[in-house]
Design goal:
Elements lengths: L9 H29 L7 H22 L9 H24 L2 H8 L2 H12 L2 E3 L1 H19 L9 H23 L5 H16 L11 H24 L5 H7 L2 H10 L8 H18 L3 E3 L5 H8 L7
Helix pairs in contact: 1-9, 1-11, 2-8, 2-9, 3-4, 3-7, 3-8, 4-6, 4-7, 5-7, 5-10, 6-11, 6-12, 8-9
Length: 313
């Protein structure tokens, strides 16, 4: 059984922010690798790339359990199942949206997940974000919009847009589940739940014809390894930060994705530069202000909102 939860220290919160920063960098790299894996007529489909990613993730997390016996410690099976199902649906809907609408538009709509995460964490975990954190989230979101759209993205409400919004809703539920689970579970155990849920929902893609060339396979394998590391870092960080602040830091992911895309020939516009600066400013501003659990929250939920000690691997 995990020890009693203790409020995170300033050093613990700083460590969590560092983990989320590098998590965003790695998630951005995984997006670039996914583009390479799916590029051209000989590439994988988005669903195949997703399935391959989680096969690699399953092998990686299983290796951790073998090397470090006792790391796998599931207790709340219902919440683990929720994390796996919500995370898997979020990933699946996101890739389906990309198949129907421009990737930039799909990413922008998917990146509204912090709104749903903050709403859910208020009712479930009794986390109450400060007005400063809300302002920071708006600033960072505007920055992401400028980075991905260059100030020129337009929206309509079709099937692709609804799928992308659905992925954001499930993504918000998934990170809220992570936050609650981190009170009693370590990051590898939570990642295993996510992996199994994602393999379940993406398994139909495995029945499609696979490409013969080596490049898509190498890129998809790299996606799996990089995303595995990014997911572990993100999950670990949720033990010391509120859902609102952690979601704010995740606004760096699309910025990092664009930065990595510069390596394959994408250009940097003036609006993009402004967006990057706004995104970074929003994260810095929001990180200077915390959150507070509602005073009427039950003790166990206040403990979940406070974070846990870092004894897990």
């Amino acid at each position: 059984m995990a020890p009693a939860a203790t409020p995170p220290t300033a050093a613990g919160r700083a460590r969590a922010r560092t983990l989320l920063f590098f998590s965003g960098v790695l998630f951005g790299l995984s997006a670039l690798l996914a583009r390479i894996a799916t590029r051209g007529p000989d590439g994988m489909t988005g669903g195949q790339t997703t399935f391959a990613r989680f096969v690699v993730g399953l092998l990686a997390v299983t290796a951790i359990f073998v090397v470090r016996p006792g790391t796998l410690r599931p207790t709340n099976y219902k919440l683990l199942a929720a994390r796996g199902l919500f995370g898997g649906l979020a990933a699946l809907l996101y890739f389906q949206a990309i198949a129907l609408i421009p990737a930039g538009e799909a990413t922008l709509l998917n990146n509204t997940f912090p709104i749903f995460a903050v709403i859910l964490s208020f009712f479930i975990l009794r986390e109450r974000p400060t007005i400063h954190l809300a302002i920071a989230l708006v600033i960072a979101s505007i920055g992401v919009y400028l980075v991905l759209g260059g100030g020129q993205v337009s929206f309509s409400l079709g099937t692709g847009e609804l799928l992308a919004i659905g992925s954001a809703v499930f993504g918000g539920a998934a990170v809220t589940a992570i936050r609650a689970l981190r009170a009693t579970h370590n990051a590898p155990t939570i990642f295993l739940a996510f992996t199994l849920g994602s393999l379940l929902v993406s398994s139909p893609a495995a029945l499609q014809p696979w490409p013969a060339g080596p490049l898509p396979w190498v890129a998809a394998g790299a996606v799996g390894l990089v995303a595995f590391l990014a997911q572990l870092l993100m999950t670990e960080a949720y033990g010391a930060l509120s859902v609102a602040e952690a979601a704010l830091w995740q606004q760096l992911t699309p910025i990092a994705s664009f930065a990595w895309a510069l390596s394959i020939g994408e250009t940097l516009t003036g609006w993009t530069t402004v967006g990057v600066l706004l995104g970074i400013a929003g994260v810095i501003y929001g990180s200077a202000f915390g959150h507070r659990p509602r005073p009427d929250a039950p003790p166990e939920l206040r403990e979940a909102a406070a974070g846990i000690t870092s004894e897990e691997p």
